[in-house]
Write a structure and sequence with these properties.
CATH topology: Nitrilase/N-carbamoyl-D-aminoacid amidohydrolase
CATH superfamily: Carbon-nitrogen hydrolase
Structural class: alpha/beta
Number of strands: 16
CATH architecture: 4-Layer Sandwich
CATH class: Alpha Beta
Distance between the termini: 48 Å
Oligomer: single chain
Largest sheet: 6 strands, mixed
Number of domains: 1
Strand content: 25-35%
Strand order of the largest sheet: 5-4-3-2-1-16
Mean pLDDT: 96
Protein backbone atom coordinates (compact mmCIF):
# COMPACT_ATOMS: atom_id res chain seq x y z
CA UNK A 1 0.00 0.00 0.00
CA UNK A 2 1.50 3.39 -0.96
CA UNK A 3 2.80 5.50 1.93
CA UNK A 4 0.94 8.70 1.06
CA UNK A 5 1.51 11.97 2.91
CA UNK A 6 -0.43 15.15 2.18
CA UNK A 7 1.99 18.08 2.37
CA UNK A 8 1.53 21.82 2.10
CA UNK A 9 3.49 25.02 1.53
CA UNK A 10 2.35 28.52 2.47
CA UNK A 11 3.39 31.51 0.37
CA UNK A 12 2.17 34.87 1.64
CA UNK A 13 2.61 38.62 1.25
CA UNK A 14 3.87 40.71 4.12
CA UNK A 15 0.82 42.32 5.69
CA UNK A 16 2.08 45.70 6.95
CA UNK A 17 4.54 48.22 5.54
CA UNK A 18 7.64 48.69 7.63
CA UNK A 19 7.74 52.51 7.84
CA UNK A 20 4.25 52.79 9.31
CA UNK A 21 4.17 49.98 11.87
CA UNK A 22 6.17 48.68 14.81
CA UNK A 23 8.06 45.40 14.77
CA UNK A 24 5.48 43.90 17.13
CA UNK A 25 2.59 44.96 14.89
CA UNK A 26 4.27 43.49 11.81
CA UNK A 27 4.91 40.15 13.51
CA UNK A 28 1.43 39.97 14.99
CA UNK A 29 -0.22 40.64 11.63
CA UNK A 30 1.80 37.88 9.95
CA UNK A 31 1.23 35.46 12.81
CA UNK A 32 -2.52 36.12 12.59
CA UNK A 33 -2.50 35.57 8.82
CA UNK A 34 -0.63 32.31 9.15
CA UNK A 35 -2.88 31.03 11.90
CA UNK A 36 -5.79 31.46 9.49
CA UNK A 37 -3.90 29.80 6.65
CA UNK A 38 -2.83 26.91 8.88
CA UNK A 39 -6.47 26.39 9.81
CA UNK A 40 -7.29 26.31 6.09
CA UNK A 41 -4.46 23.83 5.45
CA UNK A 42 -5.82 21.61 8.20
CA UNK A 43 -9.25 21.70 6.58
CA UNK A 44 -7.59 20.47 3.37
CA UNK A 45 -6.12 17.51 5.23
CA UNK A 46 -2.49 18.69 5.21
CA UNK A 47 -0.27 16.53 7.42
CA UNK A 48 3.10 18.26 6.91
CA UNK A 49 3.28 22.01 6.36
CA UNK A 50 6.21 24.36 5.71
CA UNK A 51 6.11 28.16 5.99
CA UNK A 52 8.28 30.66 4.09
CA UNK A 53 11.66 32.03 5.18
CA UNK A 54 11.32 34.38 8.21
CA UNK A 55 7.60 33.87 7.77
CA UNK A 56 6.33 36.41 10.29
CA UNK A 57 8.04 39.50 8.96
CA UNK A 58 9.29 41.23 5.85
CA UNK A 59 12.60 40.30 4.23
CA UNK A 60 14.40 42.94 6.29
CA UNK A 61 17.82 41.93 4.91
CA UNK A 62 17.07 44.46 2.17
CA UNK A 63 18.67 46.99 4.52
CA UNK A 64 21.30 46.97 7.24
CA UNK A 65 19.64 48.27 10.39
CA UNK A 66 20.24 46.79 13.83
CA UNK A 67 16.65 47.55 14.89
CA UNK A 68 15.69 44.22 13.31
CA UNK A 69 17.73 42.34 15.92
CA UNK A 70 14.82 43.02 18.26
CA UNK A 71 12.56 40.84 16.12
CA UNK A 72 14.60 37.69 16.85
CA UNK A 73 13.34 35.09 19.37
CA UNK A 74 14.58 32.11 21.24
CA UNK A 75 13.93 28.64 19.82
CA UNK A 76 12.21 26.63 21.26
CA UNK A 77 11.31 28.86 24.19
CA UNK A 78 9.99 31.81 22.21
CA UNK A 79 6.38 32.88 21.61
CA UNK A 80 6.21 31.94 17.93
CA UNK A 81 7.50 28.41 18.42
CA UNK A 82 5.07 27.93 21.29
CA UNK A 83 2.19 29.27 19.16
CA UNK A 84 3.03 26.81 16.41
CA UNK A 85 3.36 23.92 18.85
CA UNK A 86 -0.23 24.56 19.92
CA UNK A 87 -1.44 24.63 16.31
CA UNK A 88 0.49 21.46 15.44
CA UNK A 89 -1.06 19.67 18.41
CA UNK A 90 -4.55 20.96 17.59
CA UNK A 91 -4.40 19.84 13.96
CA UNK A 92 -2.13 16.80 14.37
CA UNK A 93 0.13 18.43 11.78
CA UNK A 94 3.90 18.57 11.39
CA UNK A 95 4.92 22.23 10.92
CA UNK A 96 8.26 23.65 9.75
CA UNK A 97 8.55 27.17 11.19
CA UNK A 98 11.28 29.45 9.77
CA UNK A 99 11.95 32.41 12.07
CA UNK A 100 14.74 34.78 13.10
CA UNK A 101 16.50 33.17 16.06
CA UNK A 102 18.36 34.75 18.96
CA UNK A 103 20.65 32.22 20.61
CA UNK A 104 21.98 34.82 23.07
CA UNK A 105 22.24 38.62 23.00
CA UNK A 106 24.18 39.54 19.89
CA UNK A 107 24.12 36.06 18.31
CA UNK A 108 21.46 35.49 15.65
CA UNK A 109 20.63 32.78 13.12
CA UNK A 110 18.25 32.24 10.21
CA UNK A 111 16.51 29.15 11.57
CA UNK A 112 13.64 26.75 11.04
CA UNK A 113 12.06 24.96 14.00
CA UNK A 114 10.50 21.56 13.31
CA UNK A 115 7.42 20.60 15.31
CA UNK A 116 5.87 17.13 15.26
CA UNK A 117 2.17 16.37 14.90
CA UNK A 118 1.73 16.02 18.67
CA UNK A 119 3.13 19.52 19.22
CA UNK A 120 6.53 18.33 20.43
CA UNK A 121 9.60 20.31 19.39
CA UNK A 122 11.95 18.03 17.42
CA UNK A 123 14.83 20.42 16.77
CA UNK A 124 15.99 23.09 14.39
CA UNK A 125 18.04 23.73 11.29
CA UNK A 126 20.20 26.85 10.99
CA UNK A 127 20.89 28.24 7.51
CA UNK A 128 24.42 27.29 6.54
CA UNK A 129 25.20 29.49 3.53
CA UNK A 130 24.78 33.22 4.17
CA UNK A 131 24.74 35.60 1.19
CA UNK A 132 25.88 39.19 1.26
CA UNK A 133 25.26 40.60 -2.19
CA UNK A 134 23.97 43.80 -3.74
CA UNK A 135 21.35 44.92 -4.12
CA UNK A 136 19.41 44.12 -0.99
CA UNK A 137 20.64 40.77 0.35
CA UNK A 138 22.71 41.87 3.33
CA UNK A 139 22.35 38.69 5.36
CA UNK A 140 25.78 38.58 7.00
CA UNK A 141 24.71 41.70 8.91
CA UNK A 142 21.97 39.62 10.58
CA UNK A 143 22.94 35.94 10.65
CA UNK A 144 25.81 33.77 11.74
CA UNK A 145 26.36 30.71 9.54
CA UNK A 146 24.59 27.64 10.87
CA UNK A 147 26.46 25.37 13.27
CA UNK A 148 24.11 22.39 13.61
CA UNK A 149 25.08 20.50 10.48
CA UNK A 150 22.39 18.92 8.30
CA UNK A 151 19.96 17.23 10.69
CA UNK A 152 16.88 15.30 9.65
CA UNK A 153 13.75 14.96 11.72
CA UNK A 154 11.74 11.77 12.14
CA UNK A 155 8.18 13.02 12.28
CA UNK A 156 4.93 11.12 12.53
CA UNK A 157 4.41 11.56 8.79
CA UNK A 158 7.90 11.01 7.39
CA UNK A 159 11.54 12.01 7.67
CA UNK A 160 12.16 15.61 6.68
CA UNK A 161 15.15 17.87 6.15
CA UNK A 162 15.34 21.64 5.80
CA UNK A 163 17.54 23.77 3.55
CA UNK A 164 16.93 27.56 3.66
CA UNK A 165 16.85 29.84 0.60
CA UNK A 166 20.46 30.53 -0.54
CA UNK A 167 21.44 27.06 0.65
CA UNK A 168 19.76 25.72 -2.48
CA UNK A 169 22.69 26.91 -4.61
CA UNK A 170 24.96 24.38 -2.87
CA UNK A 171 24.30 20.73 -3.76
CA UNK A 172 26.52 19.28 -1.04
CA UNK A 173 24.09 20.00 1.79
CA UNK A 174 21.14 18.53 -0.09
CA UNK A 175 23.18 15.36 -0.61
CA UNK A 176 23.99 15.21 3.11
CA UNK A 177 20.33 15.62 4.03
CA UNK A 178 19.45 12.71 1.76
CA UNK A 179 22.34 10.61 3.09
CA UNK A 180 21.09 11.35 6.61
CA UNK A 181 17.72 9.87 5.65
CA UNK A 182 15.53 12.79 4.53
CA UNK A 183 12.55 11.77 2.41
CA UNK A 184 11.31 15.33 1.87
CA UNK A 185 13.58 18.39 1.77
CA UNK A 186 11.88 21.73 2.35
CA UNK A 187 13.48 24.97 1.16
CA UNK A 188 11.73 28.05 2.60
CA UNK A 189 12.92 31.08 0.66
CA UNK A 190 12.62 34.80 -0.03
CA UNK A 191 13.85 35.46 -3.56
CA UNK A 192 13.00 38.13 -6.11
CA UNK A 193 12.65 38.26 -9.86
CA UNK A 194 15.89 38.82 -11.72
CA UNK A 195 19.23 37.08 -11.79
CA UNK A 196 18.29 33.80 -10.08
CA UNK A 197 14.67 33.37 -11.15
CA UNK A 198 15.55 31.02 -14.00
CA UNK A 199 17.27 28.77 -11.43
CA UNK A 200 14.16 28.49 -9.26
CA UNK A 201 12.72 25.54 -11.18
CA UNK A 202 16.09 24.13 -12.18
CA UNK A 203 18.28 23.67 -9.10
CA UNK A 204 15.84 22.06 -6.72
CA UNK A 205 14.39 19.53 -9.15
CA UNK A 206 18.06 18.70 -9.79
CA UNK A 207 18.52 18.10 -6.03
CA UNK A 208 15.46 15.86 -6.13
CA UNK A 209 16.87 13.85 -9.05
CA UNK A 210 20.41 13.58 -7.70
CA UNK A 211 19.21 12.40 -4.30
CA UNK A 212 15.89 10.74 -5.18
CA UNK A 213 13.86 12.69 -2.65
CA UNK A 214 10.81 14.94 -2.72
CA UNK A 215 11.45 18.69 -2.57
CA UNK A 216 9.10 21.41 -1.37
CA UNK A 217 10.27 24.89 -2.42
CA UNK A 218 8.56 27.95 -0.92
CA UNK A 219 8.85 31.60 -1.96
CA UNK A 220 6.94 34.58 -0.65
CA UNK A 221 4.94 36.92 -2.92
CA UNK A 222 4.56 40.64 -3.50
CA UNK A 223 6.85 43.63 -3.02
CA UNK A 224 7.87 45.08 0.33
CA UNK A 225 8.17 48.73 1.24
CA UNK A 226 10.20 50.80 1.72
CA UNK A 227 12.91 48.77 0.00
CA UNK A 228 11.18 47.53 -3.16
CA UNK A 229 14.16 45.37 -4.07
CA UNK A 230 12.00 43.43 -6.51
CA UNK A 231 9.00 41.15 -6.81
CA UNK A 232 8.91 38.06 -4.65
CA UNK A 233 7.54 35.83 -7.37
CA UNK A 234 5.93 32.97 -5.46
CA UNK A 235 5.64 29.85 -7.62
CA UNK A 236 6.15 27.57 -4.63
CA UNK A 237 6.12 23.94 -5.69
CA UNK A 238 6.61 20.27 -4.95
CA UNK A 239 8.65 18.01 -7.19
CA UNK A 240 9.13 14.26 -7.00
CA UNK A 241 12.26 12.06 -6.90
CA UNK A 242 12.33 12.07 -10.70
CA UNK A 243 12.47 15.88 -10.71
CA UNK A 244 8.95 16.20 -12.10
CA UNK A 245 6.77 19.06 -10.90
CA UNK A 246 3.71 17.84 -9.01
CA UNK A 247 2.10 21.22 -8.31
CA UNK A 248 3.20 24.85 -8.73
CA UNK A 249 1.70 27.87 -6.99
CA UNK A 250 0.75 31.25 -8.43
CA UNK A 251 3.18 34.10 -8.95
CA UNK A 252 1.44 36.80 -6.93
CA UNK A 253 -1.20 35.37 -4.59
CA UNK A 254 -1.31 34.20 -1.00
CA UNK A 255 -1.74 30.48 -1.38
CA UNK A 256 -1.53 27.07 0.22
CA UNK A 257 0.10 24.65 -2.22
CA UNK A 258 -0.98 21.06 -1.49
CA UNK A 259 0.31 17.78 -2.87
CA UNK A 260 -0.03 14.11 -2.00
CA UNK A 261 3.45 12.55 -1.89
CA UNK A 262 3.93 8.79 -2.21
CA UNK A 263 7.06 8.21 -0.12
CA UNK A 264 7.38 4.67 -1.48
CA UNK A 265 8.36 6.26 -4.80
CA UNK A 266 11.76 7.06 -3.28
CA UNK A 267 12.73 3.39 -3.05
CA UNK A 268 11.37 2.70 -6.54
CA UNK A 269 13.45 5.48 -8.10
CA UNK A 270 16.59 4.63 -6.13
CA UNK A 271 16.32 0.98 -7.14
CA UNK A 272 16.14 2.12 -10.75
CA UNK A 273 19.01 4.62 -10.83
CA UNK A 274 21.29 3.30 -8.06
CA UNK A 275 23.03 6.65 -7.60
CA UNK A 276 23.82 5.87 -3.96
CA UNK A 277 25.35 2.53 -4.92
CA UNK A 278 27.55 4.14 -7.55
CA UNK A 279 28.82 7.10 -5.50
CA UNK A 280 32.62 7.30 -5.13
CA UNK A 281 33.14 9.29 -1.91
CA UNK A 282 36.77 8.14 -1.69
CA UNK A 283 37.46 10.24 -4.81
CA UNK A 284 35.81 13.44 -3.52
CA UNK A 285 38.47 14.60 -1.07
CA UNK A 286 39.18 17.70 -3.11
CA UNK A 287 35.72 19.03 -2.16
CA UNK A 288 36.80 19.60 1.41
CA UNK A 289 40.28 20.92 0.78
CA UNK A 290 40.79 24.58 1.58
CA UNK A 291 42.47 25.42 -1.74
CA UNK A 292 40.05 26.59 -4.46
Amino acid sequence: MPRMVRCGLIQAKNELTTPDHSLDEIKQAMNDKHVRMIEEAAAKGVQVLCLQEIFNGPYFCAEQDKKWYASAEMIPNGPTTELMQGLARKHQMVIVVPIYEEEMPGVYYNTAAVIDADGSYLGKYRKQHIPHTAPGFWEKFYFKPGNLGYPVFKTRHGIIGVYICYDRHFPEGARLLAMNGAEIIFNPSATVAGLSEYLWKLEQPAHAVANQVFVGAINRVGTEEPWNIGEFYGQSYFCDPRGQMIVVGSRDQDEIIVADLDLDLIREVRDTWQFFRDRRPETYGRLVELAP
